[in-house]
Design goal:
188 residues, mainly beta, Pnp Oxidase, Chain A, 3-stranded antiparallel β-sheet, 3 helices, globular, binds flavin mononucleotide
């Protein structure tokens, strides 16, 4: 058997080996109607029928409380030109800041939920809370997608035009990246 040279990573840091992760801005609103934004790298689709997405959010986040209060949120997809806003919304808390105002993002009415969409993002998935589970030191919020839409021109057919729509990937810490405009179509 050949032997591979490896570098060990502490199990508590193993998640870093799964990054870069495509990063989203989740908008939510509390019972007091004040909207907030949280940056999340740990967000993914988990079911097509019903259409479900999952977000892993630590209970210490202000957004955790807001989503529990109103049971709604919007997953907004930012582009790399918004990377400063992505980092800001992931480094400050809505407990003490109005992130929409401070970072200059535009709240716009959603179609089905009370939480606003973020105007500058290229796509939006409006969700109603479907279920939630404690998972270690985070909570997994599963949302049912009620409405989903993308900016005209952001897609090539039914997928992102990755040459044009430069999504944000979190590498780790304060490092971000985007995809190069090259599509591979493996033959099997
Ligand atoms: C790139 C990036 C990704 C992040 N991903 C997550 C995540 O998946 N889950 C989480 O709980 N916090 C994540 N955070 C941290 C929160 O975004 C951060 O604590 C934020 O300030 C919480 O805002 P809030 O208190 O207004 O809800 C991330 C931060 C950054 C910069």
């Amino acid at each position: 058997m050949p032997i591979k040279e490896t570098v060990s990573v502490a199990p508590s840091s193993a998640y870093r080996l799964m990054h870069p992760m495509r990063t989203v801005l989740v908008s939510c609103v509390g019972a007091d109607n004040k909207p907030n934004i949280i940056t999340l790298a740990w967000a993914m689709p988990v079911s097509m029928n019903p259409p479900l997405v999952a977000l892993s959010i630590a209970p210490s986040r202000y957004s955790h409380k807001l989503i529990e209060e109103t049971k709604e949120f919007v997953v907004n997809i930012p582009t790399i030109d918004m990377v400063n806003a992505v980092f800001f919304c992931g480094s400050t808390s809505g407990k003490i800041r109005d992130k929409f105002k401070d970072v200059g993002l535009t709240p716009m009415p959603a179609r089905k939920v009370k939480a606003p969409i973020i105007g500058e993002c290229v796509a939006h998935l409006e969700c109603r809370l479907y279920s939630q589970f404690p998972v270690g030191d985070h909570t997994l919020f599963v949302g049912e997608v009620l409405e989903a839409y993308a900016n005209r021109g952001a897609l090539a057919g039914d997928v992102y035009d990755i040459g044009k729509t430069k999504l944000v990937f979190h590498v780790g810490g304060d490092s971000f990246a985007t995809l190069e405009s090259k599509i591979l179509r493996p033959k099997i």
